[in-house]
Amino acid sequence: MKEGKSAKLNHQQQHQNGHLSPSKFAKLFDPEASWDKDQLGDVLHWIRQVIGLVCGLIWGAIPLVGGIWFILFLVLSTSFIYGYYAIVLKVDEEEFGGHGALLQEGLFASVTLFLLSWTLVYSLAHF
Amino acid sequence: MANPFSDFKYADGLTVVGISFCTAIVCEAISWILIYRTNSYKNLRSSIDKASKKLETMKTESNKINVKKSKTKKIDRVETSLKESSRDLSLFKFKSGGVVALVLFVVFGLLNSLFEGKVVAKLPFKPFGLVMKMSHRGLQGTDPTDCSMAFLYFLCSISIRTNLQKFLGFAPPRGASGGLFPMPDPKTS
Q1: Chain A residues within an 8 Å CB radius of B166
Q2: Could A113 and B8 be called an inter-chain contact, meaning their C-beta atoms sit closer than 8 Å?
Q3: Which of A23, A35, A71, B67 fits a disulfide with B62 by CB distance 3.0 to 4.6 angstroms?
């Protein structure tokens, strides 16, 4: 029984090694990679922050004005995150607490970061 | 030497952000000294992480097979232990978080005295309700897009501190935190 388990472990390791031992960056795009709940949560958090910051900077610079653009940011950010974990990573959301748990990772912080960057860039660049 | 930001009408916004950023670093440094480097915190954190992972595994297994009564009792026991550890962690942080709270109080008072009644930024949207009350706090006039220090400081506090805690690894463990809007660790802010 123990031999069977270690053989299986070796096989999995070989499979991973045979899958070219993906670097951390490559793992972000690898649907075969296995994810820990904390790891995936952290990745989704930081992706949200980058989207918030970039959207805020761009929309403040253009500028895009009005509450509708805030709604659009929410839709864009959420769609991106959903597309990433469901289509790129192909994770089973049930193993990570469901869609709600994954979609709310970093949401509030990214909203405030977006509002901050959008407001600052708009104020400094256009007045 | 001329201030490079003096040409900007809303340069005060940058000052608010700069002070918020420095405050966040100071607060996390204080928290590290009083909380994060202590053995009590490390032990509690470790037990919460272990209990969370164990609970997840047990719940996943119980979803797949018919659950015995003893298994359900075991899950309840782990859940109770997790809640107790989380409560202990909160209490521990609360006791040590008074210093940080004092720093934040002083900084907010300082910012208030510096920027009371001043428009520090222009909002690219029209707020309403509670957001409007915060964003227009202490300002003259009726332009809803005028932004007061309070709202900008609020945005800075949440965004900068949450991400700084995350970056430094001081964010509360997922097993102990939750909810739709996870705030930066309240006991240290």
Answers
A1: 42, 45-46, 109
A2: no
A3: B67
What is B66-105 written as a DSSP string?
Answer: PPPHHHHHHHHHHHHHHHHHHHHHHHHHHHHTHHHHHHHH
Those residues with Cβ within 8 angstroms of residue A88's Cβ, 6 or more apart along the chain or in another chain: A29, A31
Write out the residue range of the structural domain in which residue A66 sits: 31-125
Q: A119 and B147 in contact by Cβ < 8 A? A: yes
What value of ipTM does the predicted structure carry? 0.79
Q: Which two tokens stand for residue A14?
A: 């070989």
The total number of structural domains in chain A stands at 2
A37 and A9 within one domain: no
How far is C-alpha B113 from the chain's CA centre?
24
Residues A10, A39, single domain; the answer is no
CA distance B149 to chain A (A): 12
pTM: 0.80
Q: How would you label B95-117 residue by residue, b for 16+ Cβ within 10 Å and e otherwise?
A: ebbeebeeebeebbeebbeebee
User: What is the distance in angstroms between the Cα of B112 and the nearest Cα belonging to chain A?
Assistant: 19
| pLDDT tens digits, one per residue of A29-77 | 887 778 888 889 999 999 999 999 999 999 999 999 999 999 999 999 9
